[in-house]
Amino acid sequence: MSATPVVGVLLGIALSLAPGLPTSHPLEPQDLEQLIRAARTGRPVIRPQAARRILRLWSQAERSDRAGIIERLREETGDSPQTLALAGPALIEVLGEFEDENLRSLLWRAFDDTDFPWRPYGARSLAVHAKVEEAQRFISALTDAIAPVRVAALTALSNLGQAQHASAVRPLLNDEDGRVRRAAANLLADWNEPSALWWLYEELLRTDRFFDRPTGEQARYQAWSLLSPRLVELPGGVAHDPGLDPVSPASAASLAAVRARLDELKAGKRPEIPARVRAGGKTPTELLGLELRSCRRGEVFLRWTENDLLLVGQGNPAELRLPRGSVETLLATTSQARAGLSDKRLFGAPGCDMEQFHFRSGQTLAATQWIVSCGPETVPNLRPPGLNSIGLALLDAIPEISTEQVTADPRLAHLRERTRAALLAIGGDLD
Amino acid sequence: MRDSSLVSILLTLVLVGLGTSALHAQGPGVQRLADDEAVEVSMAKLTSINYRRGKALPKEVEELDGQLVRIEGYMAMGTLEGVDTFEFVPESCECGRSKVQHFIDVTIEEGVTTFRPGRFYLEGVLSVGEFEEDGFVVSLYRLTVPTFDDEE
Question: In sequence order, what are the beta bridge partners of A348?
Fold first, then answer.
């Protein structure tokens, strides 16, 4: 017996065990159907991969098959933002890459609808193949209420490669959201503004937390993943570890090396960065908190501290001084409602909308959370009565804010109204 | 004779390859260190890598494969009660969970889940590397923990 057929068989076995959908055989209708189903309803981790595989099938297909795929996607996504929403975020996130005017137009209509639940996904989809004639729409999106939409708009401008829009991007270096600040700094550095790298450096200094969550450490890692490829190597072969406390001796030495490297990269003198976006540090003990993440109304982060401050935002939060004893009163007001919530800690189902009520009894104790969550569909009576009453008490505990205070820190603008709107959008009416 | 030798070599190579895959597919926590001192690992470090399918992971992350580690994070909100697996995530929201580098697939050896909303530590053996099902990468990090205590 000749070895050749055996080798062929063995090779066949080996290839058949190789992972991945076959790319060599002609596109079969069932492949597309399976992938659409996986992208819509598969495990969350496979949905984006299935969606990208549809894109790959399309890009490798013959012209006639390509038209068939587009037709099937149009059928799947319908002709309105409402029908598009049903396709789910994974499919929406790739639709803009199919070079189809109808799908792109539908994405823009959905993007313009602030009630569309998957706007960040739609915005990212549109950003990949941003068109010159769309530049102004993306510039307008730089002030969108949803931070990931602002990030997507920056990606779009980056892909357009139009550095003349730098003046529209610069204000985002001081955005309230760290993801936006980092994306803006990265883009401006791409556009030959190395001074923007100082904003990434500033993120390396963060040690802030939001209750038990190490928001500062997360920011340090994310900033370092953008900054380190630009620095290539630090003077003296020093290594920087974003996991170390920035005030540790090891970090002091490596951060000095980062500064020296920024100097070599002509980043200039370290700029005066506004206080609100400077590295946040330790905060007073947080006793109550409200964390709201609405896919339609944006995010609100509030904390009431043991020394009667209301902290607004993450990182380096805005501080509102409350009358002495008001947080203790708030704790007393809400104690009965908290006791009545028993052991149940999650209400609703996981989704893009989430309210989180945080409570801590003392400095050394871990916080306790109650979570209200739902997907894009409104769920009546989602928030239990106990949390309704706590939500109302927390809303009432937001003080009047003067115009001067808002001018000094835009995070304070319409704070009570924004908080109420987010609560309404997620858990429904508080009354 | 030469043909049969060639066949033997190829068969051995393929079987070794298959065996290695099968061992890998057994997945998490197959190796324990003699030294049971856990290495403290930051969830932010694992989840902030620039991952691309098939691309080598950072050396310092790959070196954690098979190590006894201690990691702090949150139980993913979609976790079912009474099962022996769950996703361990850096934030207690649905933000970004669909990316394969943004969660750790946890397997409980003895016991089952009860939903826990706060931040907590897990200690177990970490397995690092792409793990595929039906051609999709379903996890990059897997952690096997001996038990899951529902007391906070």
Answer: A373
